[in-house]
Structure formats: structure tokens, C-alpha cells
User: What shape does this take?
Amino acid sequence: MVSDSDQQKLEALSARISKAQKEANPSRRREGESLGAHSSIVRAMRIGSDFVAMVIVPTVLGGFLDDQLKTGPWIMLSMVFVGFIGGFYSLVHTLDEGRRKGQDGSDAKKE
Amino acid sequence: MGLHSPIAQFEVHDMSGSLFSLAGHPITFTNFSLACVLAVVFGSLLVFLPLRRRAVVPGRWQVFVEIVYNAIVGVVDEASGPKAKPFLPFVFTLFMFILLCNLFGLIPGIYTPTSQLVANLLLSFSVLAVIIVAGFWRHGFKFLNVFVPHGVPGILVPFLAVLEFVSFFIRPFSLSLRLFGNMLAGHILLKVFAAMVAAIATSGWVASVGVFPVIMDVAIVAFELFVALIQAYVFTVLSAVYLRDALEMH
Assistant: This one.
């Protein structure tokens, strides 16, 4: 025999489960489907331009500061160095992100 | 610039004279403005006219608009997550504007607004502004945690936080440089091959060889249509991805 309070608890649990399923399904679809060929193209485009921008922008900024402060090539050279470090950091970061999402996607497919 | 200079097409010409003055600068209507206005007017008509009737059994144009809209809904849902729904109109407008500017640029005589770095920077800085406002609106000052890397040794955190900070503000430059580079290179290539056709066609007996650059130019136009679409898509997807970073943090 199920009491009224138990019945209410069961209904509340059922509502929570269906809500959780609704929330879980779009995310599974997101990991499994979206990160296919399309996201690979986007990531490939992102890697190149991120690296170029990370080097060019600090270099131009350094050149401008050198002009203003009359400090020769030093700020620009240091900014080139910082730009390369930032470029490689961003490269590794994006690739790592892609690798992790790729793993998530394959896990979702296995399920 | 000579007649066949491949970069003459990127010159901005005044079409109206000074309309009014703003902070001492004359405001004029240029070929750049015309292309932007065309993109906005055509984009608005393309979206609003077919949806005016909202038929249950849609016509061709309504199907087309619904496909484009659903594609962008999919991009925002997949790249930014469900929390980004309020930003859908912004992302959709961004996609349509960039796509139409790219496509209008392929029509001879019409300027390509996205081949100007400053125009792309304006678009990408508007994305950055939306991201920053959305981040602070959603998380308050905890949004600044977006610059703190996770899962790294404590001694590296200050250095990596600086790099994260720099790379965050480099994003608009990266977005705009990519679009600018693709549009600029494509249009220069088109003009170079077109100039080659003209040069060969007027060079006596070798004129028949001129068919090869014509074939090449047609192929490049087809490729540029693809580039126009893919660059608008990449700009939109990356904007949505950056938006997710701000809304969901790490």
C-alpha cells in the first residue's frame, strides 16, 4: 500500500528525472554531433589566425610604444617574444580543448 | 593606381560630399556605406517579407529563411549552450550582415565592406563588448575568474593569467584579421586573373590561351562564394564559442 506522501514523493522524483533527462539530452547531442567536421574546420581556421594575431598585434603595439617613448627596437622585440609565447599558448590551449571535446564526443557516441 | 591595379577596388570613394560634420570630421556617403546599406536593406527584406504571411505550408522563400534561421539557432545552441538564447538575435544579425556583405562584394562594381580591416574590427569589438557585458551581467566580478587558468601549478598561474588576459583581448583582432585576409586575398586573386584575361586577349595570336585564365576566374568565383559563406559561418561560430566562455566560465 502506497501512502499519499509516498505518492507525492514518487511524482516529484518522476518530475525531477524527466527534467534532468530533458536537460541532459541537448548536451549529449551537442557533444556528439556539433563537434564533427564543422567544428574541426572552425578550429583549424581559429588556430592559424589566433597565432598570427597573437604575434602581429603585440608587435605593432610595441613598435608604436617604441616610437612614442624613443626606446629603439626594445619594446617591439620584447613584444614579439611575448607574442610568440602567447601564440603557442593559445595554440596548445585550442588543440587541448579540441582533444577533450573529441573524447567527450566519442564517449557520448559509445553510450 | 592604374586601371588594372588589383587593389584599386578597395579604395573608398566619396559619393555625396559632406552631409554633416561630427566632431570636426565631415560625414559622407561612400561606396562602402552603399554596400553596407544594400546588405542591411536586402537582409531585412529577405527575412521579413517571406515571414510576413507565416504560412503553415511555407513557400520557397519562407523555407529558405527558416533553414538559415534554424542553422543559426543550431550554432548558438551547440556552441554557446541553452543560456545563450537571449543572444540569438545578435548572432543571427551578425551572420546575415557578414554573409551579405561578402556576397555583395562578389558583384562587380559593388564594394566589399568586409575587406576593410576597420569594419571587421568594429564588428568583432562589438562581439567583445557583448561578451564582457554578458559575463559581468551573469557572474558579476566573478567573471574575472575567466582569466585564471585551472589545473596548472600555482607558480605558473600569474604568468598564464597574463597570457589568458592578452589572448582574450586578441580575440577580436583574430576574428577580424581572418575575415579581412580571406576577403582581401580572394578579391585580389579575382582581379589579377581578370587582368590577365584582358592582357592575353589583346596580345595577337596567343589570344586563344586567354580561355585558361577565364576558366580559372570562374573557378575562383565559385570558390569565393564558398569562402564568403564559410567565413561568415566561422565568425558566427567563434563569436558563439566566445559567448559560451563568458556565460559558462570554465
In short: The two ends of chain A are 37 Å apart (CA to CA). The CA atoms of residues 19 and 33 of chain A lie 22 Å apart.
